[in-house]
Amino acid sequence: MNTGFETYQLAEEHEALREAVRALSEKEIAPHAAEVDEQERYPYEALDALVRSGFSAVHVPEEYGGQGADSVATCIVIEEVARVCASSSLIPAVNKLGTMPILLSASEDLKQQVMPAIASGEATASYALSEREAGSDAASMKTRAKRDGDNWVLNGTKCWITNGSESTWFTVMAVTDPDKGSNGISAFAVHKDDPGFVVGPKEKKLGIKGSPTVELYFEDCTIPGDRIIGDEGTGFKTALRTLDHTRPTIGAQALGIAQGALDASVEYVKDRKQFGQAVADFQGVQFMLADMAMKIEAARHMVYVSAARAERGEGNLGFISAAAKCYASDVAMEVTTDAVQLFGGAGYTRDFPVERMMRDAKITQIYEGTNQIQRMVMARSLLKG
Ligand SMILES: Cc1cc2nc3c(=O)[nH]c(=O)nc-3n(C[C@H](O)[C@H](O)[C@H](O)COP(=O)(O)OP(=O)(O)OC[C@H]3O[C@@H](n4cnc5c(N)ncnc54)[C@H](O)[C@@H]3O)c2cc1C
Asked: Its catalytic activity (predicted)?
């Protein structure tokens, strides 16, 4: 036996981080989760708690005043918040999504303009790629950006923008050269106070109701020339590279939702009695629990491996990040559906959290690319070489 064997073992600081975020989430986020969902309101209590504890944007490097958490640590934060409230977990998750294009491709000057405020929690960020007619086929976007002297002027509409009515900074992908296809798309950092930037109405959704999903309108929206992220024409590549780094975070969100549903189920079946005994004593119920836990464990390994590979800067992240997001989100949907089943009629009511978890799980199969698109990414990677 080699008790010092560390392969497949999280570092002590990762475990300590999990403990800290779990304690914070149970104390300060869980008590508001049902109300946030019911009232479809932004989880300000969670935002306050996460900012106060330094967990709202843990991925920001120390040089910009951030925690400099690695990708696995960032996944653990998102997972633990999602275990009690999926809407709240979008605060750290979308802060990473919205700023990753800047961290990957922006000039040092632009990083200095945006990142310190995100690190401190003064500001939050969103990511604006999708349009009503350009979802899975994001490269067919119509939003335009044109030079005007030293400025860029944006026109168009983005839709489905997570936390869009709350964010301060937006990374926006727009066409700068319509003749060049995806090589004619550039990325920009837009501030909510920029002239011509307008936030549209909130979508009425099935789940993650505490996270406002909105349209954004750019009406001759004028921004300084230095707000372009990277070189002209590199925006779509940056957008896709971003997803390689953030799909593991959606996997982590899915994982957290699934773990929350399993934990609630274990408690419930031990307590609930039928036929004169706890329903946990029925083998049919035990097999369901075992399958739920087995799938969660497998998803957790895949999510952490994909995050670790992204952290190491490995090339060819497409397959593993798509696989982690796709598998963990499919698991979340299966596990939360089984959790509702294990609660019986009670599971179908809003008196217990599992129906919310089932509704929240569904989005993880859709955003940052539907799971059909993830399977396309995986298959392309398999077949290309
Ligand atoms: C709540 C929510 C939050 C979101 N947040 C953001 C955000 O912050 N920023 C952002 O930019 N976007 C965001 N999105 C957009 C999201 O990424 C898109 O909805 C998603 O990529 C799918 O695009 P679509 O809705 O246009 O579906 P469509 O592309 O119209 O797809 C419809 C169906 O066709 C399938 N399909 C499409 N093409 C193929 C294909 N080639 N092969 C097989 N099947 C295919 C899809 O899988 C799907 O089942 C969000 C969406 C939602 C609902």
From this structure: a 2,3-saturated acyl-CoA + A = a 2,3-dehydroacyl-CoA + AH2
